Amino acid sequence: MEYCKSIAERDIQRASRMISGEPLVELRADLMGLAAEELKGLIGLADTEIVTCHSAEAEHIYLAAIEAGAWAVDIELDTPEAVLLPLLKAARERGVRVILSHHFDHTPSPEHLKEMAKRAFTHHADIAKIITTATTTAEAIIPLQLYYDLPAERLIAFAMGREGAFSRRLSLLLGAPYTYVAPTEGAATAEGQPTRAELQALSEEGFDL
Length: 209
Description:
Layout: E1 3-7, H1 12-19, E2 25-28, H2 29-32, H3 36-42, E3 49-52, H4 58-68, E4 72-76, H5 81-94, E5 97-103, H6 110-122, E6 127-133, H7 137-141, E7 155-160, H8 165-173, E8 179-181, H9 196-204
Parallel strand pairs: 1-2, 1-8, 2-3, 3-4, 4-5, 5-6, 6-7
C-alpha cells in the first residue's frame, strides 16, 4: 500500500521537515502559499513528489515543478487547452508524469464519471483522478465503480466528505496506486482524509490494506 502524504504547511522550515525522507508526498502549492522558487527548493527532499496547485499562479508553479524534476504534476482536467497543452508537452519532454483530475462537489452518475476519466486518458494522462463528494454511503460507492471499467493502476477515484472516508480505503483494495493521507491529525487537506495511523488502525480492525 502506498501512502501519499498531503502537505499544506505554510511555514517552509516546518514543511521541509515534514517532507524530508518521505516516500511519497503531495505538495499543495496553493495551500502552502508557495512561489515558484520556493517550490523548487522543496523538490528532492522526498523520494517522490506530486505537485498540485489550484490558484491563478498554477501555470508558473507547474512549470517550476517540471523544471525541478517533480515525479508528477496534478492538473485540473478543465484547465483551458491554451494552458494545458503546453504543460503536457513540457512534462513529457522532461519525463514528468501527469495526473489529470476533476473534483466534484456532488456525486454525478457513473456514466459521467467514466466519461471524465476517459477524457483524461484521451490527453494521455498517466493517472486519471476523479473525486466526488458524498453525503451518503451509497453515493460514496459510485466512484469506486470506475475500477471495474478502467485500468486500476492508472486511476485514483474515491469520495470526499465524512460519508466517503471509507471509499479512500476501498480504492486501494480495488487497485489504486496510492491514497492520500494527512500528515497529522487536524491537518487534512480535504474532508475525510485520514492519517496514516488511522489507516493502519483500520487494517488491524479487519480491513485488509
